Amino acid sequence: MARNTEKAQSMLYRFREAQAAELGLGTRSDRRPRMASACKSLRDCERWRGEILREISRKVAKIQDAGLTDYEVRDLNDEINKLLREKRHWENQIVALGGANYRRNMAMLDDDGKEVPGTKGYKYFGRAKDLPGVRELFQSRKKEEDEENEVLAFYKKFLNQGPSYFGDLDEDDKELLRQEEAAQQEDWQQAQAYLAETLEFSEQDELPAIPLPDPLSSTDTMDTDAEVEKSRLYARQAASYISFLQEEHLMAPKMPTREEMEQILLKLRKQALVEEYFGDEKS
């Protein structure tokens, strides 16, 4: 009867040992640790990660077998996902020990070059994508993605349109300016006719000519005497037809200047400080 030392030197024993190492089984003293953080050797971490990759490759090839039952396919898919989680633990430990960073955010692709489907980290490989319930899940998700893409494609038409979309270049179009001026003159005449009808003027009465305001000069304050006198003349003509209005009521309001506004604000701040420290004088 052969002793253990002689068994260890036999060709069959060494073949079985190499076969077990290739399959990731190994001997009891050379098994992969359960906790990746327990391994403090960078070389061993790289070795165990490579072993897990070989196991994943074998199981992914096996899950393509058409002779497997649905239960076996589910079990194989669960084992592959379990190995993927374990691989991430070893990669984290490799990074912690100062090794290479294998945790690249890259999409996992199948044999056809398509991204492996899955949700929340759980992936489906091979025949697992055709299991009852899984196919319907992916079809519903694909329908939702198509609807989101349609909505995004619709709103993309309104992105990055440039100044012409917002009408900032309309002032450069002379034809458009002429059309706007004609429409503005027509609206102004209709407003004059409505005013005459409201004031019950007859057709024989001649209304004073009300000039169309200039949009460029309307933003400026009337500082010159000529502009003030012109406005006063229009107000006097309009007040002559309306007995209950005076000239001052039809004058354009006089906007305060910047210096006057600063004086008003300064006065209000002084009054607020006096009331804060000395109280209200009226009380």
The strand line-up of the biggest sheet is 1-2
Could you name the CATH topology of the largest domain?
Helix Hairpins
Spatial separation of the terminal alpha carbons: 120 Å
- Biggest sheet features: 2 strands, antiparallel
**Number of domain units:** 4
- What do we call the CATH homologous superfamily of the largest domain? Helix hairpin bin
| Tally of strands | 2
Q: How many helical elements?
A: 9
Tell me the helix content: 40-55%
Structural class: mainly alpha
What is the architecture of the largest domain at the second tier of CATH? Orthogonal Bundle
CATH class of the largest domain: Mainly Alpha
In one word, what is the shape? elongated
Rg for CA atoms:
44 Å
| Residue share in β-strands | under 5%
Compute the average pLDDT: 77
Sequence stretches where pLDDT stays below 50 over 5 or more residues? 216-222
The helix-strand sequence is: HHHHEEHHHHH
